[in-house]
Amino acid sequence: MISADEGAGGMFRRWPFFQRLLSWTKPYAPFERGSREYERYDWNSLLAEDQKDRALMTTIMDGTSYYPSRPEMERNLATFAEHAGLAVRYGCRWTATRRDGERWVLETTDGEYRCQVPIFAVGVAEPWRPQMPGIEDVPHYANTRPAESYAGKRVFIIGKENSGFELATGFLQWAKLIVLASPSPAKLSINTRTLVGVRARYVQPYEDHVLAGGVIVLDASIEHIDRAGAAFRVHTRKADAQSDLVFEVDDVIAATGFTSPIRDLPKLGVATVGRNKLPAQTPFWESATVPGVYFGGTIHQASPGLRKHGIPSNSGGVNGHRYNGRILARNIAAKHFGVKPERPVVPRAEVVSYVLAEVTNAPELWHQKAYLARVLLRDEKRGVVDDGILPLQSFVDGGGPDAVAVSLEEDAAGDIYPVLYTRRAGLIAEETLPPHPLHDFRTREHERAVVAALEGLLL
Question: Most buried of 13, 21, 78, 212, CB within 10 angstroms?
Fold first, then answer.
């Protein structure tokens, strides 16, 4: 493991700008800290085999909020690295990549590293700007000044996603006018009933806009930006009325997102996708165009899965990609090093209760709805075997023996319910189970539905 940072948690020394994360850790939950079930309520701790290294965030937070501060998250990662005895070479920057026979060669500021399998977990933290006349003359979110320096200023923020609303929230007590603008309407997570959209912590600027309190949330394209002496003129065009509006402001900030610093990988054939040009990946987070190159961490959001109901994965956050990482390690161990994973037998009499316990409490399924699934296989010699947590897309598209994949899903109305994907002679069938008001699916009704779906397959 090499890192250009000087220590663990490098990104959290800089962002989020206004300190608090969007991911929570609840010290007091219905399950014991450190248990697998507790992970559903702790979005920020990394996964560990050793009990002493689990739920570390709860030992670091000061209790003023269940959203950790930026320094607390940094300490959380540094503490994990120390406790787990991770051997990391810090201050070592990856500069170039090449192939040498069966090996990959990583050129770095500390020399060359050779490996069979490279995993690039370099984050999505490189500032990205769209093609827009004049935008090169304004600072990016990453270069925002201290909040008090905007006192009495008119501030124009390009972008209406979480980073834009985060800045607006931090400026509310300082700026005399705040404009947030982009062509698409702002989506609020409380309306989408998912993590898609602006999170509730940052909704205050939107309320100020509705109440005409010195914030303007504008659906408009930014045509160009120019200078007017010490001020900026931002030329916009409203999407609905095709009318032009010009704003004269003191500061403009491009909250336009981030990309991943994958350096020369595209020259080696690694294809990229989307506005932010993240590497295209298979369901197991391998480059879709260069076999043997893998990705880790927040870059996993470029492996979209099935996107049922249009809802993306949670792979952009620790709570999601930590489970992807465990699967990735298992897959690489089997595919490249011949280390076969354990597949314990599940007694037939316990299959139904096991399935319903998973959809009720499994953190992997709750954090990665319609993306990860628990898979049970039919083995003619051993009976029913547990194939572990796997990407749902790999089960639906990949083929294999008769089996069932169990996932949790959420529709556009916000209803959460289990889904069974059965595979019989290569054919996939989908069985949707009813939701439950308390999300406890261990009921007689759900038992009957599971028995009906698995009869003749695993039962």
Answer: 21
